[in-house]
Amino acid sequence: MRVRTYAVTLAVALLPRLVAAQGSPVADALRDFNTSQGKNLTAAADLFPADKYSYRPTPAQMSVAMVIVHLAEGNDFFCSGIAGVTKPARSKIDTTAGKPALVARLKETFDFCTASLAKVDDSKLGEQLPWFGGKTKTRASIEMITAADWADHYSQLSNYLRLNGMLPPTAKPKPAM
Question: Labelling 62: which of 22, 131, 150, 156 has CA 20 to 30 A away?
Fold first, then answer.
């Protein structure tokens, strides 16, 4: 009986350490994706000539500038919500701001995501967070939506680049070593 009590006590004492050793794979993956997509999306925005920021393949689609403004606003909304921090108070920026201002804002919002997501872990993936229309979604759901949004808009800008005779950043050949 005494051995069993010791074994249970030891297991209960070690359980938090075992869980902690697993880390936060979902949060880690989101941080990694933020880094890669932030790099790719800002590089794609940099590649577009300033005079092509109004380009859109069809009237129903967003222009390059619209995509960048949308991403910047989304980054502040999603990353502040996921991290449980206050969304930054930024001056309003619109599609007429010009390439340098739009690219700078996009970089600024990815920097905010990097900083705000740094301390996020997987302990509250089931927590309900505010969503559009007064609804809520789980933190896990919002993390997945955020990653999907970055991928969606990188694909969109990649297609826009190709339609304008340019290769997207991830399609460029790697320099030989």
Answer: 131
